[in-house]
Amino acid sequence: MKKFLTCLLAVGLLAALCVPALAVDVKFSGTYVFEGWQENNRNLRDDSTVPRAPSTSWMDQYMILNTQFKIAEGLSINTKARVMDTLWGLDGTANRLYSTSPQLNQNIEFEEVYAEVKFGPGYFVVGQGPNGFGLPFSAWDYPTAQFRYFYTPTKNWLHLFMYEKLASVGVTNNPVTGAPVTNPWSDSDYMRYNYNIYYFGDKWEAGGMFLWDQDKAARGATGTTNQWFIPEAFVKATFGPLYVEAQINYAWGQIGTPDSGVVADHLNINSYQWYGKAQYTMGPVYFGGQYSYTSGQKADDPGTVRAFLTTGRDYKPCLILINPDRDKYIGPLGAPGIGPGMGINNNYWGSANAPNTSGSGSTNFSLYQVFGGFKPVPKLDVYGSFTYANINEKPTGWVSDNLGYEVDITATYKLYDNVSYMVGFGYLFTGDAWKGTLSSASTSNDWLLMHKLTINF
Q1: Given its phi and psi angles, is residue 310 left (phi above 0), alpha (psi -120 to 50 degrees) or beta?
Q2: Which one of 59, 299, 317, 376 is separated from 216 by 20 to 30 angstroms, measured CA to CA?
Q3: How many CB atoms lie within 10 A of CB 3?
Q4: Is residue 17 included in any domain, yes or no?
């Protein structure tokens, strides 16, 4: 009987301790993606100096898992994890071939952990959280250490005040003992201050952002401060069967501004980009076009950084050109070290050490595209596009600024409300820009066949 009462007391105590935990409401959501690829000629060359690349195929997958722990009304802790983001056939420890970062080579990589606290007519966000603004054209949505306050005076207006800590080098660790060492330079951090304003209407929405970056992380080595400002604005609107969206961004500031007398020179930032898209729908048929532009480095003005702003990792206008979904696993287009230089940010077309990937973005290009689609049944969407792209600022000695023409055809079928399957075919008529400075080189076309399964939950 005594053992029974002891066990009963232990069970009761355990149940009492678990009551607060059981009160937490846990919600899961996310996305699983599988992709398979077959590509014909990735280096885009066919001559004696750079032989034609062999046909290659690969498969990859990833899962995004979002978890919300609702502790009380208006109080929650949120996480975002990237699970098994890897090529099939690898052991999961070298997921993205272009990166050696240990944070990017994990089977389970927690990207975000932050608390959300309702306060007055808004709420606070504190922790490692998401960061992004505007349309996918330039929105990165990468996690940063941040303190944000969302203020919603009415249902139509939203104000966002944000402070971010992007680097902290005021205190470092001794590489031998591991003990903390104070940096001799005070305030040697990289900070960002940000204000966003949004308006949400019935048929349209718009937003504006003003960002101020102050990077003092290199002060101890060079005695400099990097500082820049970025205003951005976007709009999305529906006028009956017509949908339009547009965004414009600008950046100015200085890199290498001396604050200790160690560095005498600096670089001025003067970078800009814009994007526009229109789509018209008539029953099961739709058609439209888009144009995007991102400034590039001028060869005759090395003191001004123009290749500064880049496209976002979710901007994927084509299957071959500017497609981070493919480039992030196997690297860039073009023969290694030959593709056109894209500017001071080390974003290059066809450079093996700086691919056009979800970790880089693209700059110094103009893209023109027309597209159309047909939905014979609600679950099936057949889509096609024709794209031309060129380099805005051709480097000295390069043969051409023509990146090429691309034709893409995709078909997407919704197996369930939250499950879709897509097959796609892309063909790139390679432009002479991929020759670099080698006028005698011979370019060759490329085609790609892929399929993709997406499950949202």
Answers
A1: beta
A2: 299
A3: 7
A4: no
Q: What is the pLDDT of residues 407-455, one digit of tens each?
A: 999 999 999 999 999 999 999 999 988 888 888 888 889 999 999 999 9
Bridge partners for 404 per DSSP: 389, 430
The residue type of 415 is: L
* 3-state class (DSSP) for residue 106: coil
Q: Work out the number of other CB atoms within 10 angstroms of the CB of residue 289.
A: 16
Number of separate domains in the chain: 1
Residue 266 lies in a domain: yes
Which string of b and e fits 386-407 if b means at least 16 CB within 10 Å? ebbbbbbbbbeebbbbbbbbbb
Distance, CA of 274 to CA of 271 (rounded, Å)? 11
pTM, whole model, 2 decimals?
0.83
Give the SS3 label for residue 420.
strand
The candidate with the shortest Cα–Cα distance to 275, out of 139, 408, 159, is: 139
Calculate the alpha carbon distances from 20 to 15, 25, 63, 113, 240 in Å. 10, 11, 30, 21, 51
- Tell me if 106 is assigned to some domain: yes
Q: In whole angstroms, what is the distance from residue 105 CA to residue 94 CA? A: 5
* pLDDT tens for each residue of 105-143: 557 888 899 999 998 889 999 999 988 888 999 887 678
The answer to whether 229 and 209 have CB atoms below 8 angstroms apart is no
Whether 23 is covered by a domain: the verdict is no
The answer to whether 270 touches 243, Cβ cutoff 8 Å, is no
Q: Residue 150 sits in which domain range?
A: 35-456
In this predicted model, what pLDDT tens digit does every residue of 313-368 receive, in sequence order? 788 999 999 887 777 777 777 765 444 433 222 333 333 223 333 345 788 899 99
Tell which residue, 367, 228, 246, 194, has the closest CA to residue 296: 367
Residue 80, number of CB atoms within 10 A of its CB: 20
Q: Is 177 left (phi over 0), alpha (psi -120 to 50) or beta?
A: alpha
Strands (E), 218-284: 224-239, 242-258, 267-282
Cβ pair 408, 370 in contact under 8 A: no
What the block records as the tokens of 457 is 């939950």
What does the alpha-carbon distance between residue 109 and residue 167 come to, in Å, rounded to a whole number?
20
Smallest CA-to-CA distance from 448 within 428, 432, 426 is with 426
**Three-point CA angle 365, 235, 357, nearest 5°:** 35
Token duo for residue 147:
């303190």
Check if the beta carbon of residue 391 is closer than 8 Å to that of residue 433: yes
| Structure-derived torsion over alpha carbons of residues 312, 318, 322, 328, reported in degrees to the nearest 10 | 80
